[in-house]
Amino acid sequence: MKKLYKKYYRAEVSFKNTFISEWNAIKSDKAVISTFFLVAFVLLMVYTYIYTKEVITEVPVAVVNLDATKTSRDYIAMLNASEGIETITSYTDIQEAKLDYYAKKVMGIVIIPKNFEKDLRSSKQTTITSFSDASNMLFYKKVLVDVTVTTGNFNAGVFIKKEMSKGTPITISKQNYVPIQTISTSLFNTSSGYGTYLIPIITALIIQLVILMGIGILNGSRKEDKTIHSNFPRLLHKGGTIPVLLAKSSLYSLIFAVILPIQIGIIYTIFSIPIRTSLLLVYLFSIPYLTSVIFLGIAISAFFKRREDSIVFLVLLSIPSLMLSGLSFPMEGFSSFYQQLAKLLPSTSGITGFVKLTQMEASFNQVLNDWYHLWLLTIIYFFCAAITLKVRASREKTKLRNQ
């Protein structure tokens, strides 16, 4: 019983000493303070501010009207009335429009063919030709969708007018044109806003990046100064890494327990990003996410010889984290190798669960798979962190003895 009590007492003392030592190291390092607090808030604030407009409107589009009739002008007026497009009709031929298109003054070109009105009146098929800048998917989608919708509505108007001229009532004419009516409803992101889609993903990525960078800077400094063994003297004792790792994870989790509500409670509110869950559920889901990232940071920081190395490495790590998160391309489209690789990053499950909770109004049961996966990563990276800490402390002690 005495041995058990001694072990508990030593673990408790080691936990407290580690907690205080780590906190003092954070307070005295301006780079870490700015990383944890300024980067976590400023970076999210900047990204959120950039995308506050949410939806692109009034994309400039060149209209080359080769018909110059009332019908063609009606089509242009309908196109201009759409929310996403601003038509510019001062072009006399396609070459003029091309010059402005390549100069990026317009993001698309619409060509109304000669005999447009004549062909419509004689029930001949005519063609509206559109070009849009596919190098920018947002502009491309906006031009393509608005031109397609406007053309469809214009076609409907032409058809219904012809039916009515034959004496068919307007209700029957509409039914003849559209026998099956479709009703489309946007779920969750009702405005189809890019910011509402992007910011929750960026929030989870920023948390991972900030934690990894802060831990990397601190451990890089300790490696330079050879203070790992002196700061955590019980690392080389049996079971000595457990209280050290628990103290570190507790401290960083407490720091982000303060940062998280500011991020989602204040920044999200200022920029009207919806939150469809309680802070309690966000905290509950964040526990394994934070701990898995913390232990991953401790494990990989063993490879940093200088504090600057951590910044370079983790900035490079943020790129594959972003790519593998499913932000730029659906994860289902990845090969099986990259899908498995993505599962090794806490941000993958962290983003999925965070978005489900905050944006999709999911219950906690619906994010349990992601939650369990984050706990699995926590256990894996805990053992990796324990091994690397012991190895670093042992090597440092050996070097100091040889000196």
Account of the 3D structure:
By secondary structure, the protein is mainly alpha-helical. The chain is built from 15 helices and four strands. The protein has a four-stranded mixed β-sheet with strand order 2-1-3-4, sandwiched between helices. The chain has two domains: about 1-50 and about 190-400, no CATH class; about 60-175, abc type-2 transporter like domain (abc type-2 transporter like fold, 3-Layer(aba) Sandwich). It has helices at about 1-30, 30-50, 70-80, 95-100, 115-120, 135-165, 170-175, 195-225, 230, 240-270, 280-300, 305-325, 335-345, 345-360, 370-400, and strands at about 60-65, 85-90, 110, 130.
* Computed CA radius of gyration, to the nearest angstrom: 30 Å
Average per-residue pLDDT, rounded, comes to 79
Number of domains: 2
* Major β-sheet annotation: 4 strands, mixed
Q: Beta-strand level of the residues, as a percent range?
A: 5-15%
Tally the helices: what do you get? 15
Shape: elongated
Termini Cα gap:
41 Å
* Share of residues in helices: 55-70%
Main sheet strand line-up: 2-1-3-4
Fold topology:
Elements lengths: L1 H27 L1 H21 L8 E7 L4 H12 L3 E7 L2 H9 L5 E5 L3 H6 L7 E4 L4 H29 L4 H8 L16 H32 L2 H4 L9 H30 L8 H22 L6 H18 L11 H8 L2 H14 L8 H35 L1
